Structure formats: structure tokens, C-alpha cells
Amino acid sequence: MSYIWNEAAETMPYEQIRELQGQRLSECVSRMYGKVPYYTEKMQAAGIEPGDIRSIDDLTRLPFTDKEDMRENYPYGTFAVPLDDIVRIHSSSGTTGKQKVVGYTQSDIDIWSECCARSLASTGMTHRDILHVAYGYGLFTGGLGLHYGAERMGVTAIPVSSGNTKRQIQILVDFKPTALACTPSYALHLADEMATYGVDKSMLSLKVGIFGAEPWSVEMKQQIEDKLGLKAFDIYGLSETMGPGVSMSCEAGNRLHIQSDHFIAEIVDPETGKPMAEGELGELVFSSVTKEGTPLLRYNTHDLTRLYYDRCDCGRTTVRMDKVTGRADDMLIVRGVNVFPTQIESILLNYGEVEPHYMIYIDRVHNLDRMEIQIEMTKGFFSDSIREIENIERRLNADIQSMLGISAKITLVEPRSLPRSEGKAKRVVDRRVY
Ligand code: DLL
Known about the structure:
single chain; 434 residues; alpha/beta; Rossmann fold; 20 strands; 30% helix
């Protein structure tokens, strides 16, 4: 059994977790009813009163909530306590419309720090470790969330925040952090830039990577591990329910442990909203039942994954989810075919000639969708002959065609010519006009 931060919570028998979840759910409904107008109205429209929610079996009687509820009640309409009791505010912009604003009471901050401490511990980190936090500090939850979790554990936190890659590399070499937290795409960028400054992975002390905030493939995980000489872990979360630390992978595999005493997870069918069984792929829905500032009940994240309820080899009994490979609303539909950027990424990672830095452009020409994928060549391959380059473009096209069932125009571009992000990578430009 590996190191577990909170054994009582993380190894609780599943039946006991369900009982606790039911009790906390019923308390949360009572806390919200009458205090949060949008939710009270939803419950009234569904003909439910707080007294109707007595156990976890009553969960599915409650109405769903969605990002529109957050946006329509911008900025403070979703808060369940007076602003006086709020000690911190974060927000998340998303792709369209107004920010989603979330408020935390002191108890919310304490629980968040606890969840991040559990997450860090599940990588094998202890108070002896030093964590370089390269997630942004600010309204984004990544930086401050992991920072507080590290301090809670007694880990030394270095609050580098995002940006200034040269300085990041210098700190990695000089301060000798043993763990790095950033988006997976930025981890790859850091690894590539190290060569520019004459830094080799043997000059770093990194053992562990805490990567998340965007979808990434298992193949990309392998590549980051090779390039930085560390073991990569997947951290998941969203501002609406807390921030990073809602779930985290462990030393036993790629599935992520959900902090089930604080977050009740469900998987629902994207079309019908009906609950799905263990192991079935659908949309992830959370109820953040211990949250005081902005509790959310049955909030549809639109992230696609599966849930598992068995005990993990690491000893934890908390509910696990698969790696999130995409969001139902990030899914591209090209010529009627569902396409996720991570599917393309997993093909690219089989080729030594290209980097997993790519951009997908979608256009509509004469009523037909056209997909172009620009992919960076590696420095070594860039100098090769035009014929060799065309050959790789053809092979990539054939692989993409056989995985997705549609063809794409593949354009290999110069090394480091595509835009890099210090936070979440932007990989898709959809220029179709409907
Ligand atoms: O990204 C919180 C976070 C910060 C998580 C640092 C992990 C590390 P938001 O900006 O609100 O919050 O974005 C949340 O990002 O619904 C997913 O679509 C995506 N996401 C987050 N973590 C992962 C992950 C933060 N590990 C949205 N794998 C979520 C795949 C992820 N997607």
C-alpha cells in the first residue's frame, strides 16, 4: 500500500462513503434551498422539497445544473452565503460568454487544500519534496490551489506561476525542485526549450509531474516522462466545483481517484441525461456537497469519461474515473464524424519525425468540411528532403484516415513555428460559417 494522506477518508468502505454522501447531499440541499434563487426555482419546478432528499438514492430526483446557470447568475447569484463569509474568489472564462465566478469560505479553502494534499500524496510525494508550481496564480485556480495543498502537506512550494520560460528553466536547475506542476503542453514546451539553454534532464532533480487542466493522451504522458525524466501524474478539476484536486491519478495506474467524500460523481448519457452504468462512457456530473460558497448540485461538466467503484491496488477505495480525453462540447464534428484532438495527438506520438505540437484548422469549402492539420517537424527531420517530408505527410494522412474514417490535409511545418501557450493549449481553429 502506498502513502495515503487521509486514510480514514480515502480507504473508507464504499457503502460507508455512500451513506456519508447521502447525508452531506441532504444537508447541502437544505443549505441551498431558499438561499440560492436559481436553484430554489429549479427544485420548485421539479416539484421537490428539501425533505424529499434523504439519501444518495434520491440524487437522481434533483435537477441538473450547467454552465448557463453560472453565467445567467453572474457574478454572485450562485453564492449560498453572504459575501461577508467569502474569503476568496476565482473565475474561469471558458470559450464563450461571461466568466463563471466561484466563491470560497474559509472552510472551502481548507477542504480544497486537503484535497490537493491528498492528490500530491498519491504521487508518493512527502513533506521532503519541493514543488515548482508553474500553473498561473490569479483568477485561474491552478496556481493557488496546488500551492495551498503543498503547504498543507509541508511540501516546499515555489510559486513561480506561468510565463518566462527561460526563468522557469533556471529555477528548475538552481532550486532543484523534485516535482513540477503545469499543463502537459507546457511541460513539453519546457522540455524542448531546455535544449536552447544547454540544459539536459540530468541537470534537473525532478521525480514527479503534476499535469492537468487540459486533455492529454497516454502517449503524451510517455513522451513527457522520457523528456523530463520524471513520473507523470494526471490531476483533474474545474473551477466550478473547486479547482485542481477533484481527482488525481495514483502510483497504481492511469485512473483518477475522486475525493468522493466531497464530490458525488455520476456519468450520464449525453443525449438523454440518464445515469449510466460502471465503465460506460458518458458525461461527468458532480455534486459538490461540502461546498459552502458556491455549492453545485448535479453540475454537468460535459467532460467525457467512465467511473469505476472497485478498490484500487494502491489501497484507496474512492470512486475512480478514466483519464478525460475530451469534452462533449469540444468534440469536433467534421463531415459528420466525431473527432477529438487527443485522437490525432496519439497518432503523432508514434512518429519520431514530428513533434506533438499541432493545430487543427477546419473550413467549409463549397459546403464540404475540410480539415487541415499543421504539425511541427522535429529539428533533426526538418533538414530532410522534400520527398521524405511528403512521404511522412502521406503516412500520417493514411493513419488519420484509418483511425477517424476521414482524410485531412497534413502540412508539416518548421520546428517551433506554431504558437505555444503557457497555460491550456489551443489546438483547434474552426473557421466554418454556418
Ligand atoms: O483547469 C482546474 C485545474 C487546474 C485542473 C490545474 C488541473 C490542474 P478550469 O479552468 O475551470 O479548471 O477548467 C476545467 O479543464 O472541465 C476539463 O475540461 C479540463 N481539465 C481539467 N483537468 C483535466 C485533466 C481547471 N486532467 C476544465 N484532463 C475541465 C483533461 C482536464 N481535462
